[in-house]
Amino acid sequence: EAGVTQFPSHSVIEKGQTVTLRCDPISGHDNLYWYRRVMGKEIKFLLHFVKESKQDESGMPNNRFLAERTGGTYSTLKVQPAELEDSGVYFCASSQDYRQGGYEQYFGPGTRLTVT
Amino acid sequence: QQQVKQSPQSLIVQKGGISIINCAYENTAFDYFPWYQQFPGKGPALLIAIRPDVSEKKEGRFTISFNKSAKQFSLHIMDSQPGDSATYFCAASPGGSQGNLIFGKGTKLSVKP
């Protein structure tokens, strides 16, 4: 079974540009999460999708960040315009619905975003 | 404000020794406490998790000890091996395993041969 995949693995952009990160969850996982780790800090929650609906977006830092999950499959996280403080590693995680025995959040390898 | 405080930041242990990492939290609404292990270039992977109605959980060489009254929990790695060298994160969630995870800052463990 394929794990959570993320694309790209690394992105370097200039301040003011736009970047779109993609996450493909494990097939059949209704829950999809985005997290971010800024250098030297803890991994922080951004938002949680259940299928195509945003269950919790309390961690989104500001309106420069837009997350979508059309059709309840893969998700994209767009940063527009990017700022220097957006640099970090963006992780995606997915899990099964608890009613289907879902227990663990499986993390992808992350996308390292560098804004210069 | 850091909701989950983790220590130490780094840890060096000899092969065969015991590695101990500690975490403390404030929010009594947390009901799920996982530990994640991360190797370079990989995402965090669930190692072991505990709920507050249990004081200890053991899986192989890994044990979580949980002290609800003190709002602390710790990871013990017995017979530490060089292959255990990784970054370990504690986390907590107010919504069970499906809720958003609040992480500690991580502990970089090095096990020397």
Structure description:
The complex is a heterodimer of chains A (116) and B (113). Chain A is mostly beta strands and 116 residues long. Chain A has no helices and 11 strands. In chain A, strand 5 (43-50) and strand 6 (53-56) form a beta hairpin. Chain A is globular. The mean pLDDT of chain A is 93. By secondary structure, chain B is mostly beta strands. Helix content of chain B is 0%, strand content 52%. In chain B, the strands form 2 sheets. In chain B, strands 2, 4, 5, 9, 10 and 11 form a 6-stranded mixed β-sheet that branches. A 5-stranded antiparallel β-sheet of chain B has the order 1-3-8-7-6, with no helix packed on it. In chain B, strand 7 (62-67) and strand 8 (72-77) form a beta hairpin. Chain B is globular, with a radius of gyration of 13 Å. At the A-B interface, strand 4, strand 5, strand 9 and strand 10 of A face strand 5 and strand 10 of B.
Question: Which helices and strands appear, and what pairs or packs with what?
Answer:
The complex is a heterodimer of chains A (about 120) and B (about 110).
Chain A: E1 5-7, E2 10-13, E3 19-24, E4 31-37, E5 43-50, E6 53-56, E7 65-68, E8 75-79, E9 88-95, E10 106-107, E11 111-115
Parallel strand pairs in A: 2-11
Antiparallel strand pairs in A: 1-3, 3-8, 4-5, 4-9, 5-6, 7-8, 9-10, 9-11
Chain B: E1 4-7, E2 10-14, E3 19-25, E4 33-38, E5 45-50, E6 56-59, E7 62-67, E8 72-77, E9 86-92, E10 102-103, E11 107-112
Parallel strand pairs in B: 2-11
Antiparallel strand pairs in B: 1-3, 3-8, 4-5, 4-9, 6-7, 7-8, 9-10, 9-11
